[in-house]
TrEMBL record:
GO terms for molecular function: oxidoreductase activity. Residues 32-384 form the FAD dependent oxidoreductase domain. It comes from the Bacteria. Keywords: Oxidoreductase. One of its GO terms (cellular component) is cytoplasm. This is FAD-binding oxidoreductase.
Length: 429
C-alpha cells in the first residue's frame, strides 16, 4: 500500500480541519468518470458530476490537497492575467466576453460553495488590493479597475494615501480594489470540497498513484500502482504543477515554478490594526509579484518566487523574511513560525489550458497563481461539458498538448530572468 508523503510543515497543514477518509483503491471496478488529482479542479469536477448523478471516482497519488491546493496563499482573486479588453482583442468579442465573464465569476464560485455546502473553512471576503510599485503600474491598475467596473464589478482605483492606509505600508504609489476577492484557509477548503463530493456520491481514493492510461473498446482503463484498475467512459486529468509523465509531453507543456511563503508569529492587536486593517488580501504589479495577507490566526503571510529546486534550508526563504521587514518595518524583529512552498503551473500564454488529445480524455492544466477560484470554477465547467456535451460550457477551447521547445533549458532560462527581475523590479527587493 502506498504511503502518503507528508505535507510541508506549513501554516495550513498546522491549522486545517482534519482530512477526510480517502482509503487507497484496493479493488478494480468501473465508474462513469475517473478524475486524476484531488486538488481544486478534480474535487470540484467530482462534486458537480456527482450532483448530476454521474459516478465519479477520484484517484490521488498522495492526499487531498497535497499539491498547490494545500500550499497556496489562500487568496481568492477573480480574473486572469489579462484584462477584459485584452481578452476581447485576443479572442474576439463573443469568446473574449465569455472568458471575461467566466474569469470574473471565479471568486463567487468559491464563496458560493462554502455557503451552499456549509464547509468548515475559515474565510473572509473583504476584497483584493493590487498595489502598484511604479507610475506605469499606477496607470495599469487604473485601466484594470475601469474595465472591471464597466462590467459591473465592485472595483475602483486607489490613490497613494488610501493604498497606504489599507495596506499598512508606504511602499506603493497607488493601487486598485476589487471587492470580489477574499481569502480562505486553502487546505481546509480542499478538504471541505472532498467531503462535499463524498456526500454527493463521489468516491475519493488517496495514496493511489495512477501509472497507466489506455483506451480500449470498453472505455478507458486506468491502472494504479497497487495494481487495481478502474474502467470508465471518461477520464479527467488535472494535476497542474505536480504533473508527471502519465500523458506524453504534458509535463513539458508548462513551467512548474515554486512559490515560497513565510508566516510570522501571531501579531499583537496593535500590529494587526496597522497592517491590512480592513481585512483585504493583496498582491502587487511586480513581474515577480509579492502577495500578502493576514490569516485567521492573526499571522502575516507573505509569498513570492523562490528557487526552482526543492528547498534545502531556511535560507531559501530569507529573501521573503527581509521583504517583510522592509514592507512593514513596524513589525520589528518579529519571528517566523512557518516556511513552505508549492508548485504553480504556468503556461506559455499565461492562460488556462484544456486538452482533449483522445476521445473521452480531457486535461486541465495551468493555474497561473489564481487556482483557488479558477480551478474551482473550471471543475464546474468540466462537469457541465461531460454531462451535456456542450462545448460552450468550457471557458477555453481544447487545444493540442504542445511541448515547450527546449523545455529542459527553461529552468535555467527562467532562473536567469528571475535574477534579472529582482535587480530591476524596484522597491523592496
Amino acid at each position: 500500500m502506498a504511503k502518503p508523503f507528508p505535507l510541508d510543515p506549513s501554516l495550513w497543514a498546522a491549522t486545517a480541519v482534519p482530512a477526510p477518509e480517502t482509503p487507497p483503491l484496493e479493488a478494480s471496478g468501473r465508474a462513469d468518470v475517473v478524475v486524476i488529482g484531488a486538488g481544486y479542479c478534480g474535487l470540484s469536477t467530482a462534486l458537480h458530476l456527482a450532483e448530476r448523478g454521474i459516478r465519479a471516482t477520484v484517484l490521488e497519488a498522495q492526499e487531498v490537497g497535497f499539491g498547490a491546493s494545500g500550499r497556496n496563499g489562500g487568496q481568492v482573486i477573480p480574473g486572469l492575467k489579462f484584462d477584459p479588453d485584452d481578452l476581447v482583442a485576443k479572442f474576439g468579442q463573443e469568446r473574449g466576453e465569455r472568458l471575461a465573464h467566466f474569469a470574473g465569476s471565479t471568486a463567487d464560485t468559491v464563496f458560493g460553495l462554502i455557503e451552499k455546502h456549509g464547509l468548515d473553512v475559515p474565510h473572509r471576503r473583504n476584497g483584493w488590493i493590487q498595489g502598484a510599485h511604479t507610475q506605469a503600474g499606477v496607470d495599469e491598475v487604473g485601466r484594470r479597475a475601469e474595465q472591471w467596473a464597466r462590467l459591473g464589478a465592485p472595483a475602483r482605483a486607489l490613490d497613494k494615501a488610501e493604498t497606504d492606509r489599507l495596506l499598512g505600508t508606504d511602499r506603493y504609489l497607488g493601487g486598485w480594489l476589487d471587492g470580489r476577492g477574499g481569502a480562505v484557509q486553502p487546505l481546509s477548503y480542499a478538504r471541505g470540497l472532498a467531503r462535499a463530493a463524498q456526500a454527493a456520491g463521489a468516491a475519493i481514493h488517496g495514496c493511489t498513484p495512477v501509472t497507466g492510461l489506455n483506451r480500449g473498446r470498453d472505455g478507458w482503463r486506468v491502472t494504479t500502482a497497487q495494481g487495481a484498475e478502474i474502467v470508465a467512459e471518461r477520464v479527467i486529468l488535472c494535476t497542474n504543477g505536480y504533473t508527471d509523465a502519465l500523458w506524453p509531453d504534458l509535463a513539458q507543456s508548462i513551467i512548474a515554478a515554486n512559490s515560497f511563503q513565510v508566516a510570522t508569529a501571531p501579531l499583537s492587536d496593535n500590529l494587526r490594526r496597522s497592517i491590512l486593517p480592513e481585512g483585504h488580501v493583496s498582491s502587487d504589479t511586480r513581474k515577480l509579484l509579492l502577495y500578502f495577507r493576514l490569516d485567521h490566526t492573526g499571522r502575516l503571510l507573505l509569498g513570492g518566487r523562490g528557487p526552482f529546486r526543492e528547498p534545502r534550508g531556511s535560507e531559501d526563504w530569507a529573501h521573503l523574511e527581509r521583504i517583510v521587514g522592509k514592507l512593514f518595518p513596524q513589525l520589528g524583529k518579529i519571528g517566523f513560525d512557518y516556511r513552505w512552498c508549492g508548485r504553480v503551473a504556468i503556461t506559455r500564454d499565461f492562460l488556462p489550458h484544456l486538452h482533449e488529445p483522445e476521445p473521452g480524455l480531457l486535461i486541465d492544466i495551468g493555474c497561473q497563481g489564481r487556482g483557488v477560484g479558477l480551478q474551482s470554477t473550471m471543475g464546474r465547467a468540466i462537469a457541465e461539458y461531460v454531462a451535456t456535451g456542450n462545448a460552450d460550457a468550457l471557458p477555453v477551447a481544447p487545444s493540442p498538448v504542445a511541448r515547450l521547445p527546449l523545455h529542459a533549458l527553461h529552468r535555467i532560462y527562467v532562473s536567469a530572468v528571475i535574477a534579472w527581475y529582482r535587480l530591476n523590479d524596484g522597491g523592496v527587493r
